[in-house]
Amino acid sequence: MRRLVVIALLLLAALPALAQAPQALRAEVLAAYPHDPRAFTQGLLLHDGALYESTGLIGRSSLRQVELASGTVLRRADLEPPLFGEGLAWVDDELVQLTWRDGLALRWDPRTFARRGAWHYDGEGWGLCFDGTHLVQSDGSQRLFFRDPKTFAVVRTLAVTESGQPVQRLNELECVGDTIYANVWMTDRILAITPRNGLVRAVIDAGSLLTPAERAAAGSESILNGIAYDAGNDTFLLTGKQWPKLFRVRFVP
């Protein structure tokens, strides 16, 4: 009897963790489009039907507008060395592009691709999205930074946990309603994060997008990175660093 009581207590203690276990989803491919295999994708954004991309690497970083169907680069603004492009967001009729270790959030005119200025910040810049109120930034840790879209000042920080454990290496971000989607660097996982408390409520497996041959040809650094939401049909656009394709997907069980 005593042993049964102990087992029952252990099960009760485990209930909170079990309740927080994220839903397992996968990326169901609906369509595939060409993607520039030289683009070291760091940020992906769809706004009013136009696709924008931030690419990285010193000497190869850029801001781009890309034609989805063909992968053709319609417009491009290159970042001067040593700037290394990272996450990208649209806020208040302006494109904001992070840089990795340069401490600059570049502000662009989306009509002309002319640079309007920059905000300075401490630490590294990885992913960026706009939730309608704040710019949300990742820095490769488990933390997300909610920033004032007028000044880029930090308003609050959020620690992200999955089943009670901290999640490190949060990368490219996409804000969709009451969810923040985040790539996890060097993995094929996308996390669906609750911005109120930082809990991961779903994990999307995107490991089957490229074939083994395509992965081998792209190289070891060519990881999943790039999430854009298409509100017109409730789908997502996904790609990766130096991937030959960009995919339209739906997240399904």
Characterization of the model:
It contains two helices and 22 strands. By secondary structure, the protein is mainly beta. Strands 16-17-18-19-1-22-21-20 form an eight-stranded mixed sheet, with no helix packed on it.
Q: What does the oligomeric state look like here?
A: single chain
The assigned structural class equals mainly beta
pLDDT < 50 stretches: 4-19
- Write the H/E string, N to C: HEEEEEEEEEEEEEEEEEEEHEEE
Give the percentage of residues in beta strands: over 45%
Q: What is the 3D form?
A: globular
Overall mean pLDDT stands at 92
Helix segment tally: 2
Largest sheet: 8 strands, mixed
- What is the distance, rounded to the nearest whole angstrom, between the alpha carbons of the first and last residues? 40 Å
Round the Cα radius of gyration to an integer and report it.
19 Å
Give me some keywords for this one.
single chain; 253 residues; mainly beta; 8-stranded mixed sheet; 4-stranded antiparallel sheet; 22 strands; globular
